[in-house]
Model the fold of this input.
Amino acid sequence: MNQNIDKYSEGHVSPFERIRRTNESGMEFWSSREFAEVLEYSDYRNFEAVIEKAKLSCFNSGHRVEDHFVDVTEMIEIGKGGQRPVKTIYMSRYACYLAVQNADPKKSIVALGQTYFAVQTRRQELADQAQEIEEDRRLLLREEMKRHNIQLADAAKNAGVIEPVDYAIFQNHGYMGLYGGMEAKDIHQHKGLKKSQKILDHMGSTELAANLFRATQTEEKLRRDKVAGKEAASRTHHDVGKKVRQTIKELGGTMPEDLPSMESIKKLETKRRKKLK
Done:
C-alpha cells in the first residue's frame, strides 16, 4: 500500500481517482485501506465502523452487500522488505459513495469525497440508464426483425425463391446492397464474428433499424410490384438495400459495416430473464 498518498488534488486529478483500481475484467474498485488513508483515518479500526454503517445503508437501499463490499486479504510491506497479510475490503464506486456519506463530516477531505462520489455516481446512473434504453431497443428491434424476416421469406417464396440455397442468395443480395457489396461471410469477417454467430444477434439498435427497414421495404416492393423470378427478387432486395445505404449516407450516418459489434442478444435475453427473477 502506498504510504504517501497525496490527500488533495494535484493537476485537477481527484485523490480518490488516483487510488482507483481495475481488475482484469475492467471493473473498477477501491481498497478500503487506501480509502481510509485518503480520508485521514490514521487508525484503520475507526474506519471499519464507517464501513459497517455503509453496509447497512447498502442493505437498506435494497442492494446486495456482497456485490459492493468484497472481503479480501492483501499483503502489505513491513520493515526490512518483509510482508504480512491484512484484511481489507474491495469497494465498488457505490460502496465508496456510502462510505463517505457515513464518514466524519468535519474532515475537509470527506466533504470533497462526498461531492466527488455524488457526481460520479450520478454519471454512472445516467450511463446505466442509457445502456438499458439501448438494450431495450435492441431486444425490440431484434424481435421485429425475426417477425419481418418470416414475412420477407414468404414474399420471396411467392416471387419464386423456393430452394434454401436460392433464399441464401436472395438474403446475400440484400446485405450486399446495404453493406456496400459485402456478403454475409464478409460481414462476419469484418465484424470479427464466428461462423456460428448470427450477424443480427450482434447488431446495435441503429444497425438493426437499418436492416429492419431493408426487410420491410423489400417485402412490400416484392408484393406491390408482383416481382416474379428468383433473379428479379434478389435484384430487388439488392436495390432496396442500396437505397437504404444511400439514405444513411445522405443523412451523414455511419455505414452499417462500420458500426461496432455488440454483445450477443442471447446473453442479453438471459440477463433480462435473471433480472426479472
